[in-house]
Amino acid sequence: MLYKILIDPFVQMGAAPDLLVQTLWEGLVGGVLYALIALGFVLIFKASGVFNFAQGIMVVFAALTLVGVYEALSSWGVPRGMLAAYLALAVAILVMLGLAFAVERVMLRPLVNQPDIILFMATFGLTYFLIGLGELVFGGNPKRMIAGDLGLPSGSYDIKMAGGFVSLQKIDIAAVIIVSVMVAGLGFFFQRTRIGRALRAVADSHKAALSVGISLEQIWVVVWFAAGIVALATGIMWGARSEVSFSLQIIALKALPVLILGGFTSIPGAIVGGLIIGIGEKLGEFYWGPLLGSGIESWLAYFIALAFLLFRPQGLFGEKIIERI
């Protein structure tokens, strides 16, 4: 039994390198999408110091808004196609901007300087509000993502390598490119701009930020809008791989082990943590799944995160907090 668990999977990797490359590629794509989900959590946490439980439903709500507006435009006589898709995308972006203003005005502004647990519980309320609003407006049935109308590619490339063929889905390649550009842009914005520096000041202390003239209202709107755009991109990419439904918010919970690995305040950490979880899941599912059970993909990420917690609780890129008494 120990041979099958500790040695045989590595023998299989060496015997069929093309399957190993295929598994690594699928894990890389999944890891990039996990990193995109985690990025939305990181943005909110950096601005408020609070874990935004509503990020998962924001992914679903943004994707449902895009598809719902597209269907509404079609029913109003706008021909289906790229024009209607990008009109729906523009409306979805405006909706996420409106949500950012509403969250700042209704939820965050009254809770300035309140304990973090209060803000955390407020994100629970926001979660169930968006679930109810989404079901009321768009219904509870799964919907097809309009990936083709948005110009996202379909099909695959079959490349001969490693003694066999590796299939690369075109939508996966597009996802990796789009996520890479988004992460680079957000990283530059929050590291090199005045608003980015103000964001870090707000994360350190609301009172100190207010004392030097930083507008909490402006920072929170910018950050929640950025998190909304990330949620919309996440919903498009995950929806294109399956479909748009409320079950997508369960996938967002995979951001927890990603954040534990990378650190709650680190954008590079979200990327590295996502890749570790994505690749680790696929390798575990393909090589160890038949031995440990087909449900390994549902718990392996949390096991990896637990192992990291034992040795580095702040994550790979997290900051050590030293309190002097």
TrEMBL record:
Organism listed in the record: Pseudolabrys taiwanensis
Name of the protein in its database record: Branched-chain amino acid ABC transporter permease
Family: Belongs to the binding-protein-dependent transport system permease family. LivHM subfamily.
Organism lineage: Bacteria, Pseudomonadati, Pseudomonadota, Alphaproteobacteria, Hyphomicrobiales
A Pfam family it matches: BPD_transp_2
Transmembrane helix is among the record's keywords: yes
Cellular component terms per the entry's GO annotation: plasma membrane
Major subcellular location class: membrane
InterPro entries, per database record: ABC_transp_permease, BCAA_transport_permease
